[in-house]
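Crash report, auto-generated. Payload:
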Amino acid sequence: MTIPLSWVLALSAVVFGIGVIGLLTRRNILILLMSLELILNAANINLVAFSHYLHSMRGNVIVVFTIAVAAAEAAVGLAILLSLFRNRRTVNLDEVREMKG
Amino acid sequence: MVNLDQAFFLYFAAMIVVFSIVTITRKNPVYAVMALLVVFFHVAGLYVLLNAEFIAALQVVVYAGAILVLYLFVLMLLSVPREALGAAVHRRWPVYALVGGAAAVEIALLLARSKFAQRPGPYPPDVVREVGSTQAIGTVLFTEFLYPFEVISLVLLVAMIGAIVLTKKWTPAQGGEEGR
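Recovered output after restart:
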């Protein structure tokens, strides 16, 4: 309606940036996964905004898919986190370095 | 002058940004989850503002209702001692914060300088309001996107099986690798 598209895109860019910063700076895997959710939400905001302004429903449908993928990602990510914690007693990424070359 | 829609948008945007920052700066993950909950609710409000009521409901039900509860359950299962949390942030965090900020600025610049297609589709806001966003999404989802819809159900199935396999405690009797 009367919300400029650029406002929504700016908001989405800011949320994406915050998510990337969280992903890069934090060392707690749980907070990393939450930053991933923030990034996915930024993408969803963009999709819904374009869907609204281009008078199309495709963006909204893709958001449905994104939410399903986010649910799958959270389930698998948290399962990996659980088995990691069971083996290593840590959720800190800096202490997990078996794969380091 | 801002009208009512824009005022609501500014409120939602401010809350989303502030609580996103709160989410990534908390040392205790429980507070981060709570801040993320606030973010998700305000994103849902934003979706309502953009005529996507069904997506807003989905956001609240799936994100706030399922995913965040999953996070809280895992937090409860882990019960990480406070000292085992380790360093909260990477020691070179200002560099990475700059990288993230640069990414956001780049995206904003790209979007500001690009032209978007101006070919309106078959669902202008008044049509969506008339048939309802749920029916409009359903019509597109089950005709045009039927194949991706089936694929996404497979993705969910694989994720479900993966989560079970990853978290199961294997015993030697079950053919596990010596009860790893």
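Post-recovery validation: The mean pLDDT of chain B is 85.
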